[in-house]
């Protein structure tokens, strides 16, 4: 007699908020992705299934009187099978009843083997698991993204940035192609940092090792990279603000601070206000949400189709960035810079350590009405060009600015957080105060609160952000 084992099409919810595929804490704004475990995964369990099946068939043969010696091979429980399964002196079971019970027992054991295998799978490193079980194409079939306006509290203003949340690393070429597709001043790519490479269950850590690791590893650390449509950049303020807003609003970040590992070193972003509703929703979700692994849903599940996306409003974030110092240009460079501004007279001209030119003009009206000469800017040795002036009285701002960077494919950046790493100390020195209010006078416009700490060499940028769009990248594996 052959026993058939039910091997369902396995589906596991991939949570973008966690390096491990852990479906019990699905965030949020972004839907969890459901991947079907490949046949290769089932084949890894075939030996266990074969042993179970052979053992169970042996029990059936004993019951049928075909091979008494198989009782020994059948293992523990075979003797009870041979006496009809009777514990007392009751009537013996029929062969049909015994087979049915045996089949149910086998299926329970098969389900346990499968559950244990999935438990081991979700505890493994996602990158290793994706390669072992050939899931990379599924993981990248759909990439969540959001478009967020930074340094503004309303849509269609400030500086828009696309933020893509990646389950695994992609090539630089792929990242650049995606940024070109969005065609925004910056596209940010976020990936949860795998601070802990999980060991095989055979080599489990001691409780002391686990405790020490928990104390040193932050759960809110991410790798962050920024791309214009043409190049990767070392630092971007508005796309960092947008990334932090996505993490805080969606609940992906569980604390009040996130840490970004970037080409400019470690950057921090901290909640200021606007995320209180998110925290309440998190508590409610944790109290009511069931573990998807215990009750897996298929893609046809009504609950999955109607799962609500969490609404995201306006949030305020403070960024902790490195201070950018500056030095004065010589007269020859100042003349070239003036020509790039259409011959406007400059009160001061210099260059920042990151390679941007910084020019002061007489009033905010000159900043607003300035006509940039982009061919001249392309001939400058620096990266981009900042023009600034003190703000008008009663305007609510201390200074105004604009930023141009045609070399990176950005004729004019709507609001430039990184430029304020130099503008902050520049105006703090002139105005004699460390807390400043800035306005970037582009067509879209944006507001930044700047706090300068020269002793620590840091500039703190505070601004609002608002989500205006969320979606999914499709068919990008072909790139």
Automatic annotation (TrEMBL):
It comes from the Eukaryota. Transmembrane segments: none annotated. This is Uncharacterized protein. Residues 66-106, 283-307 are annotated as: Disordered. Residues 66-84 have a biased composition (Low complexity). Keywords: Isomerase. Residues 97-106 have a biased composition (Basic and acidic residues). Belongs to the PhzF family. One of its GO terms (cellular component) is cytoplasm. InterPro entries: Phenazine_PhzF-like. One of its GO terms (molecular function) is isomerase activity. Signal peptide: none annotated. PANTHER family: PHENAZINE BIOSYNTHESIS PROTEIN (PTHR13774), PHENAZINE BIOSYNTHESIS-LIKE DOMAIN-CONTAINING PROTEIN (PTHR13774:SF17). The keyword Isomerase applies. The keyword Cell wall biogenesis/degradation does not apply.
